[in-house]
């Protein structure tokens, strides 16, 4: 199958450090190539891939100091994609909604993965208007705000089996990995560490829109908690493997309906259990009491800390291998592609069916 993968341009594919959607696009692209498909990747020019790369911009927009507006680059990407649709049997968009009018008017076979939270107030009318654009969710909970949208189904994220090596022996600290955003609940992580007497290491990216929050809320908290909290900043590669793999547990105290939470399966791949809030996708990813604990408060999280000794790290790794490998993700998406193509063939047969000769039928 000739497949186009259309990535966001904010980070390279894969990102050097923090970046969720672009990382998933990279893993999916590489697995599709391994499965024998002919894949074209539309992404920033500093991306690395075994597929055919169409460099839409010179480098990732969030890494480009001269970039002031990201929308023009994404509009141009749509031109590059739609210029010659005969090149592709399937186009897979990861670029939010900018392509919806073009998909409708060109009638090209496509699927769109929505990687963010589906906020009903903003998206309900849009998704219901474009009821003919096939959508894929990254968790069942992501579909709940607009259940009547054109959801083909859910495909959970997956990552390469060898990306994060299994670590059988944990260290004596909690890990927090993500953004310094109010949605991620970093204050809760600090409080859990304080009350449980366990050190906390924070590997986090500070986006410009979150800088005031970090400086006014988190930075004073870190200064106050310097004796048991270490802020290490953005990490990737081997440093990330060591950070996650040596942790006693990953703290995931999210304060919003998390659409997926990629860091949870990265931790499981390392064998590291997760203590997470009961929000969004968490109950779909974490098996309570088996791969970690699902909680509703800081106090409940602290009570779970002694029970971490009962979680088998081998069991966490086994759950990752069973449910969250990149190969499984790629084969699930191929099924979605085939579903769309099958529907199109059915529709074409309906259009091509000869009209009944009512006279002969009635005779």
UniProtKB/TrEMBL annotation:
GO molecular function, one term: glycosyltransferase activity
Sequence ranges assigned to domain Glycosyl transferase family in this UniProt record: 172-298
Keyword terms of this UniProt record: Transferase
Record keyword Transferase present: yes
InterPro entries: Glyco_trans_1, Glyco_trans_4-like_N
PANTHER family attached to this UniProt entry: BLL5217 PROTEIN, GLYCOSYLTRANSFERASE
Name recorded for this polypeptide: Glycosyl transferase group 1
Organism of derivation: Granulicella mallensis (strain ATCC BAA-1857 / DSM 23137 / MP5ACTX8)
Top-level taxonomy: Bacteria, Pseudomonadati, Acidobacteriota, Terriglobia, Terriglobales
